[in-house]
Amino acid sequence: MTDKPVWCQRCASLSALAAGPAGLVTVDAKGVFEKVNDAFCDLLGYSREELLGRSFNAITHPADWEKGSALLKQLIAGGRKSVSIEKRYITKTNQVLDVVLHTTRLVDQHGTIQFLTQVTDRTCAVATARLAKSHAASIKEFADICAHQLKAPQRTILGMAESLREDAADRLTEEEKSYIDFIIMKAEFMQEIIDTVRSLTEISVGAETLVDVDVGEALLEAWSDVAVSRRGKVRIGTGLGSIRGNKTMLVQVFGNIMDNALKFNTTAEPEVVVTTAVEFPIVRMSFTDNGVGMPAHVIERMFSTFYRGNPSFPGHGIGGAVVKSMVEAMSGAIEVVSVEGQGTCVSIDLFMGSVNAWKVSS
Amino acid sequence: MSQNKLILLVEDDEADAVLMRRLIRILYKDNPEYTVTVERCEHGGEALARLIDPSGRLKHPVPDLVMLDLRMPVLDGFDVLTAMKGQDKTRRVPIVVLSTSDAAGDMTRAYDLGTNGYLVKPVRANTFRSMVQAAGSFWLETNLVPR
């Protein structure tokens, strides 16, 4: 596996997740904080230095020290992969904070066991979750209704256009036939948009529904779809492990990234190379291609819905938005570096799975 | 001598009805064994008035096949199935649902009410043609119904 090209080494270090809005900590088997992010510090009012090296019991309401201990013992012993517990924390200013802790058992590449905990203010979490669920359900229902209602006129347009082309073939000029071909092409395009908009509205995954996903399997499944319609090669390293995610989403994310890598490519041998970097508990997967690349103003907008950065290639501008939404639904982050005429590197950061076989690959 | 076959198309969408008639015409225009006529009703109420007389018996000519949309004004496809399949005098007429809905709930309900088949209207014309050709081949040319 070759090294990443020089222009791609500008990718930032694995800090995107730590900078996210969710409170995240890692603790060892004795409950001592090993890593804490800014959001967690802000939630409690402590600095990173004040927290690192201390036990989580130091900030837990004494009455809750034993709360969830049975579940935690099962987690430590490996009988469970993750647990959710509600507790009370005491902030630096002695305020009592109701929190929801979602802890996952992870094993790093050296076999060391660590625990990754997402900490959420319970009041916000409950209200936000309820609102988000209701909102997501409404949007999905609306999208389903629109998709269903659009199918009938779309079918009519396609059916009538094809019937006209067939029945009147000997009476139409070539120019008139081309008008009908445009109608058919756009009607088929409508179907792609309907399907993709429906995908977007189905993105509503909570932390409790994320599972271990074998990355190698997901990559191969995604590639098998891409290879049917795209010219080019993919190179995937060994030493792949699992991530915490949703397999269907992950396959779609990988597929979309690889498809774009080969689509926006005018070389004789289009290629996308998949590399990984590990900074426990986060895995960064980078997809580097030798395609046409993008200017900075396109990169800034590439995740906007319906934005098309390069109209000379076919597409409807929803793929980027779908990929970003799905990665974030899996508590991940995405970053893009690109140079016009050289290629693009799309990096996604995700949490390791509890079954970890990651080996760093170049 | 060719046999006459009758399809009763219960469909509220004018365009879908036009496309269906066209397909049947194309598929059977050169068929030496069968001539196929398509009658259309625009909703379930019209269909039941066409199919059943005031005494509850089938009106003649009895269709060889009813192709039934589900979502229609006045009375929908489920109402037609309930009326037709709920009585001894009318339940033997083959009814195949031809709907845009692929919802499991609609399918289950249609089968629970006694539909003989369930087809989902495809988007592409060539797929629709293959479907209608297969349906015609089975229900009009192969399947037998007591008279």
Name the poorly predicted regions of chain A. 10-16
Q: Tell me the radius of gyration of chain B.
A: 14 Å
Give the overall silhouette of chain B. Answer: globular
Number of separate helices of chain B: 5
Helicity of chain A, as a percent range: 25-40%
The biggest chain-chain interface is:
A-B, 12 and 14 residues
End-to-end C-alpha gap of chain A: 6 Å
Overall form of chain A: elongated
Structural class of chain B: alpha/beta
C-alpha-based Rg of chain A, rounded: 24 Å
Please tell me the overall pLDDT of chain B.
Answer: 92
Query: What characterizes the major β-sheet of chain B?
Result: 5 strands, parallel
Oligomer class: heterodimer
> What would you call the structural class of chain A?
alpha+beta
DSSP, total strands of chain B: 5
What does this structure look like?
The complex is a heterodimer of chains A (362) and B (147). Chain A has 362 residues and is of the alpha+beta class. Chain A contains nine helices and twelve strands. Chain A has helices spanning 38-44, 48-51, 69-77, 122-167, 174-201, 215-229, 247-263, 296-301, 319-329, and strands at residues 23-27, 33-36, 82-90, 96-107, 113-121, 211-214, 233-236, 242-245, 271-279, 282-289, 333-339, 343-351. In chain A, the strands form three sheets. Chain A has a five-stranded antiparallel beta sheet with strand order 2-1-5-4-3. In chain A, strands 7-9-10-12-11 form a five-stranded mixed beta sheet, with helices on one face. In chain A, a hairpin with a 5-residue loop joins strand 1 and strand 2. The longest helix of chain A is centred in the middle third of the chain and has 46 residues, at 122-167. Mean pLDDT of chain A is 81; it is low at 10-16. Chain B is built from five helices and five strands, in the order βαβαβαβαβα. Chain B has helices at residues 14-28, 44-51, 77-85, 104-112, 125-139; strands at 3-10, 34-41, 65-68, 95-99, 117-120. In chain B, strands 2-1-3-4-5 form a five-stranded parallel beta sheet, sandwiched between helices. In chain B, helix 4 (104-112) links the parallel strand 4 and strand 5 (117-120). In chain B, helix 1 crosses helix 5. The longest helix of chain B has 15 residues, at 14-28. The A-B interface holds A 148, 151-152, 154-156, 158-160, 162-163, 191 and B 13, 15-16, 19, 22, 100-101, 121-126, 128.
